[in-house]
Amino acid sequence: MCYTLTIASQKGGVAKTTTAVSLAGALQEQGYRVLAVDLDPQGNLTLGLGLRPQHMTATAAELLLDAATFAEARQPTALEGLDLIPGNENLQLAERYLPSRQAYAWALQRGLAPAQQSYDFILIDSPPSLSALTTTALTAARLALLPTQAEYFSAYALKPMLQTIRRVRERYNPDLAYRILLTMFRRRNRAHRIIRSRLEATFGAGLCQTVIETDTKLREAAIAGLPITHFAPRTRSATQYRALAQELVAYVQKE
Amino acid sequence: MCYTLTIASQKGGVAKTTTAVSLAGALQEQGYRVLAVDLDPQGNLTLGLGLRPQHMTATAAELLLDAATFAEARQPTALEGLDLIPGNENLQLAERYLPSRQAYAWALQRGLAPAQQSYDFILIDSPPSLSALTTTALTAARLALLPTQAEYFSAYALKPMLQTIRRVRERYNPDLAYRILLTMFRRRNRAHRIIRSRLEATFGAGLCQTVIETDTKLREAAIAGLPITHFAPRTRSATQYRALAQELVAYVQKE
Ligand SMILES: Nc1ncnc2c1ncn2[C@@H]1O[C@H](COP(=O)(O)OP(=O)(O)OP(=O)(O)O)[C@@H](O)[C@H]1O
Ligand SMILES: Nc1ncnc2c1ncn2[C@@H]1O[C@H](COP(=O)(O)OP(=O)(O)OP(=O)(O)O)[C@@H](O)[C@H]1O
Ligand SMILES: [Mg+2]
Ligand SMILES: [Mg+2]
Fold first, then answer.
1. Which of A153-157, A163-167, B96-100 has the lowest mean pLDDT?
2. Pocket of ligand 2 (CB under 6 A)
3. Taking Cα atoms as reference points, which of B247, B225, B230 lies closest to residue B75?
4. What pLDDT, on the 0 to 100 scale, is given for residue B216?
5. Confidence at A241, pLDDT banded by 50, 70, 90
6. What is the DSSP string of B31-43?
7. Distance from CA of A37 to the nearest CA of B (A)
């Protein structure tokens, strides 16, 4: 019984990739079999799990364009039970040619069909855009996790994202739910606390209970190519990402 | 004698827009006539200068697709001598349909031709991607200013960006130069200092002398819809962006 989450935001640098890596680590640590999917031409998720995007020949791009099978694209990582469909600049081609294909929104869902038996969770990392790659990632998911900073430009980005989610529900995926996740939060910053209470008022249960605060250790984990849960297990961000994993597992189990 | 700068990075959240707004303010303050161009569907530059993207009917998208003239697209801002070509979600369509057009890389250059007489500087803000919009923005520019954080994923993004710049030089714009700008820098962070010295060693004069350090006031300026130079003139970031403006003006004058 595989559950697919897409981590998405067209706003740049809001910790989409960091959330994908950290959540993958937290879920693997609890014994779940996890597949991470890198849909960003930058290949940051691939880097964050210790692999080199430029060395990958069968990536998510080839999977989307039917140029490689799931088995060919899947890579193991240093962590048992955590596998990866890598991403690299080839995804730029996928982004450009996907819209001209038949039923393209379903391309990722189709490509990931073989994974349904072998994993408990699929986590998809998206690029900072509201384009073809993000559409196919949202179409393949049960839940859209939307990392958001308590910042003006980031909060402004929620409206177009929710419109996109609504469109995906209407046309392709009526079961798509969403949760907003506050990231890079600074509890001592008054503006952050104000924006947080406004988001709580606006979104209520649509906002994750768990909040991820700033933690410089997360940046070091990326260099090490490991999730924070494994790189620095006792740091605050590792604890918070574990709490997020538990919150999402509880949500999934109620579904 | 108009000088065009494109602010570009496919990495998200590295202060492209913040740099575009702040630099526009610093140049306007020194008496230069400045045109800001918002090429990001998110419309953050438009927001950062106090306008509402959703109310704009003639945007950079219409200009690129020949659906509006320069005069129709140009908007004044609250600051005398600082005008804006706004951006909004219409740019998503431009992104998609531009590549199918004749000589599309020149689309922005053509659209901005009427501006050459009326402005001293044109500043173009790009989206976090290496796609059609960024290509046309680089083709129109004399200088590509590349905001970069002293962070792993951000530094990794430099190589594909420089490859893109090389391609643009070979095919369209041989005079395109670049400068890397360190942003959101934390001088007390040892990893930041280490990454900075590595970038200095690798890029030498290709790295701006000016470094922009983190300053929470910059986030408040965005809410006010004003450049930091006008919103909080005595803050460190206002001083640093003024220094950057001077450094770039000196560079331009030597050209
Ligand atoms: N909670 C945090 N505390 C401190 N630094 C963080 C935190 N979360 C992420 N970062 C750092 O912020 C930067 C941006 O994060 P990340 O790359 O994950 O964002 P993103 O949304 O995936 O960006 P993009 O839009 O480019 O894909 C990275 O350098 C990352 O290490
Ligand atoms: N020097 C700084 N100090 C503190 N905060 C900053 C600084 N520069 C930018 N910011 C904040 O960081 C966030 C990201 O900045 P910004 O939106 O300008 O980046 P960007 O590269 O344009 O992002 P995108 O890739 O989404 O276009 C914003 O909330 C901004 O206010
Ligand atoms: Mg990312
Ligand atoms: Mg921006």
1. B96-100
2. A 11-13, 128, 151, 153; B 12-18, 40, 44, 128, 183-184, 212, 214-216, 218-219, 222, 237
3. B225
4. 94
5. very high
6. T--EEEEE--TT-
7. 17
